[in-house]
Each structure stands twice: as C-alpha cells, then as structure tokens.
Records
---
Amino acid sequence: MKTIKNKPIPSFKSNQEAEEFVAKADLSEYDLSAFQPMHFEFVEKDASINMRIPSSLLAALKIKAKAKGIPYTRYIRLLIEKDIHFKT
C-alpha cells in the first residue's frame, strides 16, 4: 500500500493571501496535524491584578508565551483560566 504524504501549508504575507488560499484550496490535501484550536476572547476585561514575582519567573513566562505566539499577559491569564477551568 502506498503512503500519501500531505502537502505542507504555505506561508502567507497577509491575511488576504491566507483567506484566498482557504477559499480556493482543497484542505484535505494539506498536512493540518500541527494546527491547534484557537481561543477567542469576547468577555470584557474590567478588572486587573498586580503581583510581584521573581524576574527569572517572568523571563521564563515571556519565553513560553513567545513560543506560543501570544503576549505574556495573555499567557498568564490562560494559565489561570486553565487551572480553575474558567471559560471566557
């Protein structure tokens, strides 16, 4: 039996390029295994917190957030939400 390897998703220079690709392409031909669910935030952020943490912990948080492609403050909020099973 022959194994079929799916094509990698190309890189796009703009959202418009990505939208055009999705509108025209047969996505079943592409490797979507690296895709992850996207979390959209619709709830107004009407409260804030201020906490002191070691600079090494903040540096580690920033590295993890950057690897995930999100701001570190959003990453911290996601960690809190995940721990208390809170859905925004």
Note: Helices lie at 15-24, 55-68, 72-84.
---
Amino acid sequence: MDINYELYKVFYYVAVSLSFSEASKKLYISQSAVSQSIKVLEKKLNQTLFIRSTKKVQLTPEGEILLRHVEPAVNLLRRGETQILESNTLRGGQLRIGASDTICRYFLVPYLNRFHKQYPGIHIKVTNQTSIKCVDLLESDTVDLIFTNYPNSRLGHGFHIQPIKDFYDCFIANRNYYQELEHRSLSFKDLLEYPILMLDRNSTTSEFVHALFQQHQLELVPEIELSSNDLLLDLANIGLGIAFVPDFCMSQSCKDLFRIQLKTELPARQLAIAYKEHIPVSNAAKQFIGYF
C-alpha cells in the first residue's frame, strides 16, 4: 500500500499527544492540516484511528495497533538520522538509557557524571522503568541501551547482553523490632512466619524471589509490595517487616538494619547492559558501554 510517510508521522504525533493542536505545534503545520492528514490516512486504511470529541481525543483499538508499529519505525528513523549527523564526532548527539530508579541511584550516577564531564556536548536522556519494562523501551527504540537486573524473563533472542556486575539480594530487618532474629539462621519456611516486604510483581526481583520459594515448594505471599527499593528500606527501618532488597542499595544510613542469616545461600544475580543485536549503537552509546 502506497502511503506517504508524512501521514504516519502526523498520526504518530497525534497519537502520542492525543491532541491535534499539540501535534500541529510540534510539526509546525496548521491544525487543519493535521486533521486533513489523519482523514486521508483513515480513508487509505479504511479504518477510524481516533475517537474525536470536544474535550479529548482517544485512539481506537485499530489506532492503538497502528501506533505499536509506527512508534518503533519513527524512533528507528530518528536514531538513523542522529547517527548520520553525528558521524564520527562526539561533540553532539544523544545518549538514551533505560534503567530502574535503584540501578540509576546506586550504580549509574558516577558513570553518568564521568560521561557528562568527558562529553559535555552529548545530551543524556535517562528513562526510569522497572527492568522488565525497560525491555519495552528497547524494543520500541525509545532508548539505545538498558541497564537491567539479570536474569530478565523479557530478554530473549535478538538482544546482546553484557553482564557487568555480580550482586546478591538479602532479607533485612530492623534490630530494634526483630532483635531475636539477628543471630539466628532462618530457612525459607521460617521467613513465611514474618511479614515480607518486596518489589511488586512487575519486576525481575519479584520473579527471582518467588521462584526461590517455589523451588522449596513454598508459596510466598508478601505483606507489602511496592515499586521502590528505597521505600522498602524505609518501611523495614520502621519495623513493618522483613524487606528483600539488592545488597548494593544498602547504605551507611541503614545502621539499624541487619541482614537475616539464611540456611540456604541465595544465588548471585547480575547487573547487565542490553541492546539490540542487529542495530548499530550510536558512537555515544559505544563510548558509554566502554566504561564497563
């Protein structure tokens, strides 16, 4: 089907902003031109792509399907343009990274600082998502590379995975509330007698710890599930339960928190860099990957 790319470009801007006026501003064309382009595209595809009302614009199911295909294509074209314009220089361009807030805060900041000082002309964009959702960013070409906990069930074929650091998870509690546990060794079954605080199901950490308990024929039912390791540390610190967190996010400020000794040693996990195998990474991304 012969459809002008510009029509898809207009569709993309309307779809991500859900506003004809916002799309017209970003495309530097009139709102009527945006509306006309959408009408032409809908006629060519014989589908209604947007539900229009006086208050808001919504994607139809067909529009949502089209966006899932158009968004990666637009991002891929942008990426190609950027790499060609950058050529072999590192005086400009963009470095786009996806990572969880925990990985950003407790691991990436020194490397981002180093890169920014070395290449001040390169714009650094960091998008925070869970390690699992970061794969979506990579698949849609919203980012050049991601930093993820590994194993990650979403990373399959088509991705280059480079492990960069081993780490261990730990169960932690506040000695002021769980003093009797500080010098005991607990089994996984023993842990179920206490309130467990952990990351929510949409995380590699949750996948990992649930699998550990299932290997021992035990069902883990957390007392609290959150999206932030920092919040887990805060809640453990006030005695709400035993938190499950990566060891690298423990800090000196956690002086009242102690690690629960386990009868079964937890296996190591890894921090890893992942990027698409068959798409060349930008020069900026290559330099950043080189730090590791």
Note: DSSP finds ten helices and 14 strands in the chain.
---
Amino acid sequence: MFIASQKRKTNIAEYLLYMWQVEDIIRANDLDIAKIRGTIIDTYPGLDAPQRKQLEEWYESFIDMMRREEVVSGGHLQINNNTLEMLRELHTALLGDERFTDYSRAYYEALPIIVELRARQGDTKHDEIETCFDALYGILLMRLQHKTISAATSEAMAKVTRLIALLASYFHRNEVEDIFRRDNEL
C-alpha cells in the first residue's frame, strides 16, 4: 500500500508491475490474510500498529476484489486493467502526434521485439503495450528468482524498457499538464 502509493505518484509503469506482483503475492498466500500477515505485513519494517492495521485492510480489500472479479488463479484486477488501458490510450495518442518523435522512435526500435514476443504468446492476444508489460514482469520474476538473463534478452528488453519508461514519463507529464494541448488552442 505504501509502496504502491509512492509508485503511482512517481512511475506508473513501476506501479502497474508492482500491482501485478501484489496479485501474485496474494495468490501465493492462497488469498489467506493470516498467511499474508505472517509473510508480508509482520515483516514490513518500521510500521506502527495503526499502519499495520491499514496495510492489512488494504490486502483484505484486494483479496475481496480478486474473489469478486474471479481472478483468484490468474488474470488482473479491473483497477490494474484500467491503468493498462490508460497507458494504451496514451500510447496511441503519442504515436498519432508528430510532436512526440522520441516516443515514435523508441516504439519503432522496440517493435521487432514486440512482434516476436507476441508471436511467442500463442493463444494470448495481448496488445503491444500489455505484451511489453508481460515481458517486463517476466524479467522481474527472473531477477527475483536469481535466474540468468542472456545478453541478447537483456539487449532486447532494454528497447522495451526504454519505450515503457518514455510512456510512463509522458503519462506523468500529462497528469500535470495537458501535453496534447496546442499552444494556439488557448
């Protein structure tokens, strides 16, 4: 909750990946708040009693949402899907506006990797942005498991990372100022 709140303010991409990890942590703990209390909440450093209670209630609300939305064994909560949809919409808008050539350049550099990743997905028909997040999440899991990541994979993922980092940057910039407003539209 505390980490999620901070990430949401500073980096929407990290926030979304973190929230996917929260979903998986809840699943790994069998949607059992007692297990989550023992493995997560009680080990969280520097929390006082009210903060622990607040964190426990946060996890309980996610457990409840996961059950209601039937994403107990897989998939993502609607709030996370909504975040992904906002990023998709921004991605499309950035590509459609000639002022954002840096984004278009990053996209076209990452596109061959995205196409290859999508081909490997099989039946899953994720769009380009979700494919990028799936790949980034997979790399995150590999790192957490201390698995070796090949140089070729690292090089390819650097292009995907750059694209998503730019998307996240534009997302936060757009929250502060309407980056699509033209100067003559005052």
Note: The chain has a mean pLDDT of 92.
---
Amino acid sequence: MKNSRTIEAIKSQSRITFYMWGLLAASGCIAAYFDDYGSAFMAFTVLAASFLPIFFERYSGISVPKYFVAAVVFFIIATLFLGEVFDFYNKFWWWDVVLHTGSAVGFGLIGFAIVFTLIGGDRSSHSAWIVALLAFSFAVMIGVIWEIFEFAMDQIFGLKMQKSGLVDTMWDLIVDVCGAFMAAISGWNFMRGNKALGIFTPVISKFVLSNLGRFDKFKSRSKK
C-alpha cells in the first residue's frame, strides 16, 4: 500500500519535473557508456536526491505544491550536477549568486511553513513579525551551515568550493540574507492578510490551502 501511494505521488508531479528526471537519467547512461563513471555516478546520485521532496511529502503527510517540488529538483540539479560536473560555477559568475539567493528564499519559505504549522495557522497581528523573524533566521542559519560545510570540504579534502575564499563567503552570505528577507516579507504579508504583496506570498497561500487540516486557527479566523 505504501509503495503504491509513493508511485502515485511520483506520477502526480509536473511535466517539468519528469523532463528533469529524464535528462539526469539520460546523462548518467551516456556518461557510463563513454566510461565517464564519475559523471555517471554524480548524475544518478542527483537523480536519487531529487526524489527526497516526494518521500518527505509521502511520509510527513504534508502536501507540497508541485511547482515547489520542481523548484527543489531544479536546484539540486543546478547545484550538484550543472555546477560541479559542467563547471557552471566557473563558467558563469552569476550562477552561484542565483543559486544562493534561490536557496535562501526556499529555506525561508520552509522556515515559515514550519513555524506556521507549529502555531496552528494563527494569523494574529502579534504573531506575524515573530514568524517572519524565525523564517528569516532559519534561512540564514542554513546558509551559514552551508558555508561551514564548504570550508570544511576545502580544508579536509583540498577542494575549491569557496572559489575566492573570504570574498566568496561574504557575497554568499549577503545574497543569503537578501533571499531570506524576501521570503520573510512574503510570510509577513501573508500573516497580515496582504496576499497581493510579497512576490512569494501566492506560494505560501497555495501551501496553506493544500494543508488546511493542519491549520485549525487559520480556518476559524477565515470564517469570521
């Protein structure tokens, strides 16, 4: 029964997600055919990692919007596959900036979803800034942990994940803060009922409407 539900969850994903899965599978097979086992291993590892959001949805019972799953899959591909295998980090100076900003926004939205779930969907005015602050802090914390990870990999294994050392780290943290701020503002606007404001507020609205059973306070407030 669990396996059939997981298969149904996979089948329900968007076409874009399936295209990206197909691209990874084809890349891995082609790399293996030409004896490029390092690239093949990376392609299939990224393919496996891209299913994590679906398994999270399946076992947590939390409904995740399809386009958010597609965004996570694209981010994993862009970071681990395009960035490392095809060396996009060195070919395009803006690649790292875009990914850090996007990841900060994503983790900010995840942080908001976690806190909003914990408070049962309470949208009272005194909760809005607290939830926004916690979402912002969660996203920045993830960014800091990632920078520590890059530093550790460079020191232990002699990699060059921090391309230009301190300068690279500081710019990564700056864009992390900017992305986290955008997500926090969107969360704050949603809490205040300003659905038209905040570029990512519609994403939050979609998530909440897909999981109304977890937000009793939100439902009771909406009926008033």
Note: Residues 166 and 215 are 43 Å apart (CA to CA).
